Amino acid sequence: MSASSMFQKELAKIPAEMKKQVDMSWAIADKIDSLLKARGLSQKEFAHLMGKTEPEVSRWVGGTHNFTLRTLAKISTVLGEDVIKV
User: Which DSSP letter does residue 13 get?
Assistant: First the structure.
């Protein structure tokens, strides 16, 4: 069995909701990154506006952070645009 087929076999075992969570995390991270670039803000500047540390913002943009609704609301307020739409 090739490495690719073994990978595909293991990937198929991941629950659909976990795949969806990962997709959503990456989409939120991409949106934050795009908004920062559009506004000419560095992660350091954004962290200051949010009252957070630069490493924390870096994790947000890295796509692995599990956001609370409170944090998403604050990010949307600081950046002046919704990060997610429901």
Answer: T
Q: What is the pLDDT of residues 5-30, one digit of tens each?
A: 888 888 788 888 988 988 999 999 99
Spans of all domains in the chain: 18-79
Q: Does pTM top 0.85 for this prediction?
A: no
**Residue 39, CB-side half-sphere exposure with 13 Å CA sphere:** 17
Rg (CA), the chain: 16
Name the CATH superfamily for 18-79.
Answer: lambda repressor-like DNA-binding domains (1.10.260.40)
Sequence-distant (6+) residues with CB within 8 A of 44 are 54, 57
Residue closest to 41 by CA, chosen among 27, 57, 24: 57
pLDDT for the residue 13: 86
